Predict the structure.
Amino acid sequence: MSLEQNEHFSCPYCGETNDLSVDLSGGPRQEFVVDCEVCCAPIVACLQIRGQEVIALEVHREND
């Protein structure tokens, strides 16, 4: 059983699709900042995890 899962989301700045590798062992709620793979803008990612599954992924601009 893998403790990592890949998720996809659209950048809230440029709209391009990004990939996110999620550590499922990091707890049921996780929040961190990642840079867009295309425009390099900082994105806040908020995750909710239940068991071995991401049940919610929300992203927003760093200053929102």
